[in-house]
Amino acid sequence: MQRITITLDEELLEVIDRRVAEHGYQGRSEAIRDLLRNGLLESEPLAEAAPCVAVVSYLYDHDTRELPKRLNQTFHAHHDLTRSTLHVHLDAGHCLEVSVLQGASGEVVELSRQLMAERGVEHGHVQVMPAPERH
Ligand code: NI
């Protein structure tokens, strides 16, 4: 085990200290180690060809120019990867969508990035899980 020094702002330290107390950690080091492990695991990508399923969620402003149309076109262009999309009209102008994608990891990740990069799409999040091949 090695000891390192990191610099964090007060605000972040307060969040970490709350987490230490709430989760019953022995100290800050243990909590930070856990957070680092989770963060590093999450970013460990699957092989491009590996079959996966993904949950993509995002919020958008319905009135952003042509956005609903552009999203719809993107999904149709990749209908082979799209299993289902849940659309919630949050209020008069905002929509929340949750899409389930399935296919080769490389293509699924590419499509989810394309969706989240659309102008007007906010709070994009994607969770990729290994899955068996589609039958
Ligand atoms: Ni809507």
TrEMBL record:
Keyword annotations: DNA-binding, Metal-binding, Nickel, Transcription, Transcription regulation
Keyword Metal-binding in annotation: yes
Highest taxon above the source species: Bacteria
Cofactor binding, note field: Binds 1 nickel ion per subunit.
Boundaries of each Transcription factor NikR nickel binding C-terminal domain copy?
53-128
**All copies of domain Ribbon-helix-helix protein CopG, residue ranges:** 3-41
Q: Pfam families attached here?
A: NikR_C, RHH_1
Q: Which cofactor does it need?
A: Ni(2+)
Briefly state the protein's biological role. Transcriptional regulator. Transcriptional repressor of the nikABCDE operon. Is active in the presence of excessive concentrations of intracellular nickel.
Family per UniProt? Belongs to the transcriptional regulatory CopG/NikR family.
In its UniProt entry, what is this protein called? Putative nickel-responsive regulator
Q: Which species is the source of this protein? A: Pseudomonas urmiensis
Upper taxonomic classification of the species? Bacteria, Pseudomonadati, Pseudomonadota, Gammaproteobacteria, Pseudomonadales
